[in-house]
Design brief:
- Among the domains are: about 30 residues, no CATH class; about 220 residues, Glycosidases (TIM Barrel, Alpha-Beta Barrel), CATH 3.20.20.
- About 40% of the residues lie in helices and about 20% in strands.
- It has eight helices and 13 strands.
- Helix 2 packs antiparallel against helix 3 and helix 6 packs parallel to helix 7.
């Protein structure tokens, strides 16, 4: 069949239409591509401006002394280490200065831990936090001074106390001239009336207790008594207390009746394995027995006694006699009598004698 001119025209028209549509489609694609390119260019320019702004801010911060997080962390670590090194050197210098000045090792260590009681025992050091639930004494390091006779005197500002000077004696002082003692300014005396043996546990009277009680009271000194305890249970504590009460019954005892609690310096001492609870039970039985008999009970001991042997809190209801030689007193809690030396000199007593200061009016 032959194509007519009409058919040819129609086919040409269709091709022209297709071409126009293709041109329009390609134009749209090109337009979209162009738009997308423009958007990317704008976005890229925006990001570049933001990057430039951030870089500019960082440069400004760095120029003003600011650091990145990593840099800051490193600086903190370096500063911390430097501070630790400085503090460690300061501590070493302090220890060196104290030791060179003649302070003992224990005193030096104590100065480094002012919030704890430091106790040396058998080559070891023990640390006890100073408690706030026990009454503290009010005295400062400058409140006491030694006078020309070697007696400790209170030189602080408080008028609430009536301080007195005293001695404590046993058979080790031998025969005492109590008239000379009284004339030398001594106001009171604690007399040992007995003791229990450290190994066999036998009860013993002090050889001079009667002479000392009579001599002291006849010369106007107020008198208290003490017993060196080595009781290991409540039954023995009661036995010791009853012995003391029997021995002092004929005398006018104005000062306290004291249980002396110390660790015996012997590997075979019968008290070596006692616990703090057992020590405290002994003290309470002794003191309550004394109190029920109408006397004032008291506990004698040193810093070790009130930390390693007993908890100061558990015997704080009783009057306290603290033994600590030298000043200032290294004991923060309340006390009634302070034994401040074992090498005192008093007229009428041959050799050394323990000296005490009392701030309680008995």
């Amino acid at each position: 069949m032959k194509n007519t001119s009409q058919d040819i025209k129609e086919r040409r028209g269709i091709r022209n239409a297709h071409n126009i549509i293709s041109i329009i489609f390609l134009s749209l694609v090109a337009l979209l591509a162009l738009s997308f390119s423009v958007i990317l260019l704008i976005k890229n320019a925006t990001l570049q401006r933001e990057e430039d702004a951030v870089r500019s801010q960082l440069e400004a911060l760095e120029s003003e002394g600011y650091y990145t997080e990593t840099q800051a962390k490193k600086l903190v670590e370096e500063a911390t280490q430097e501070g630790m090194d400085i503090e460690a050197q300061s501590i070493r210098d302090s220890i060196q200065q104290k030791l060179e000045a003649g302070e003992g090792t224990t005193a030096t260590i104590r100065s480094l831990f002012p919030d704890q009681l430091v106790v040396a025992n058998a080559g070891r050091y023990y640390f006890f936090p100073i408690r706030d639930d026990i009454d503290h004494h009010p005295f400062g390091p400058e409140d006491f001074e030694f006078n020309e006779k070697g007696f400790l005197e209170y030189v602080g500002n408080s008028t609430a106390y009536n301080f007195k000077t005293g001695v404590d004696v046993s058979r080790f002082q031998g025969k005492i001239d109590w008239a000379k003692v009284a004339a030398d300014g001594i106001d009171f005396a604690f007399v040992r009336v007995g003791l229990r043996g450290t190994t066999e546990g036998k009860l013993l009277e002090d050889d001079y207790y009667e002479d000392n009680l009579k001599g002291a009271t006849e010369n106007g000194l107020d008198v208290g008594v003490y017993f060196y305890s080595q009781a290991i249970n409540e039954e023995e504590a009661l036995e010791e207390a009853q012995m003391v009460l029997d021995l002092i019954e004929p005398y006018d005892i104005k000062y306290p009746v004291v249980i002396d609690v110390e660790s015996a310096e012997s590997d075979s001492a019968r008290t070596n394995n006692m616990t703090t609870d057992e020590y405290e039970a002994v003290v309470k039985v002794f003191c309550e027995t004394v109190k029920n008999a109408g006397y004032t009970p008291m506990v004698y001991g040193n810093v070790k006694s009130y930390t390693l042997l007993m908890d100061a809190y558990d015997v704080d209801d009783y009057d306290i006699w603290i033994a600590y030689y030298g000043t200032p007193l290294y004991y923060p809690y309340h006390f009634n009598v302070w034994q401040y030396t074992s090498t005192g000199t008093v007229n009428g007593i041959d050799g050394n004698v323990d000296l005490n200061i009392c701030m309680t009016d008995y």
